[in-house]
Amino acid sequence: LTVARQGFRTEFSFEDFEDSTRVVIRIHDSDAGYQDLRFDTIYVVGGRGFLTDSVRVDYAVPAWAYTPAGTVPLYVSNGCEETISGTRADIKELSLSYSGAAWSEEMMIFNMEVDGPRNRLGEKIGNFAKLSDAERDSIITSMHSIRQAELGLFMQMPDSWISLQRLTYDMMNMGRDSV
């Protein structure tokens, strides 16, 4: 007797996207880590797009939705239904609303405290060579502050799925005592 694997459903509610806006989804759903990934494509119609699929493992995995307004980080897991909503500006700032998944609240916290500031800093880093020494020092200081905020979230939310996922990748750059 074989049992069909239950899939997941993620709804994207991007009210200010034009009809037929293409969104490419990258899913990392293998025990092999980042060496094994796959892509899917959805289209936003009437401000909504739906990703219905299944993952090959029995736990939540990271995914990214590449939209014309920027990249939306998310997690997907079989049996999960999540809604991610916002506008183009929300995507740029990573001030999106996530609901329906066990990690939705944590995702919004990490976006607000870590990923949104990293994105904004990333825009400045693109012109790093043209910046003054003071501006460069400010960026480096900001990078360290964001990293400390992320480490603080790991400590505040040690049972968080997102903390665990991020720590899995971050621990290679951390000292043994920190891990």
Strand ordering within the main sheet: 4-1-7-8
Low-confidence runs of at least 5 consecutive residues: none
Note the beta-strand portion: 25-35%
User: CA-to-CA gap between the ends?
Assistant: 42 Å
CA radius of gyration:
18 Å
The level of helicity is: 25-40%
Continuous helix count: 4
What is the succession of H and E elements? EEEEEEEHEHHH
The SS-based structural class is alpha+beta
The strand count comes to 8
Instruction: Provide mean pLDDT, rounded.
Output: 89
Principal-axis shape: globular
User: Sheet bearing the most strands, described?
Assistant: 4 strands, mixed
What does this structure look like?
The chain is α+β, with helices and mostly antiparallel strands. 35% of the residues lie in helices and 28% in strands. Helix 2 packs antiparallel against helix 3. The longest helix is centred in the C-terminal third of the chain and has 24 residues, at 133-156. The model has no long low-confidence stretch (mean pLDDT 89).
Write the layout of secondary structure elements.
Layout (H helix, E strand, L loop, with lengths): L7 E7 L6 E7 L10 E7 L3 E6 L7 E7 L2 E7 L4 E6 L1 H6 L3 E3 L4 H22 L7 H24 L4 H10 L9
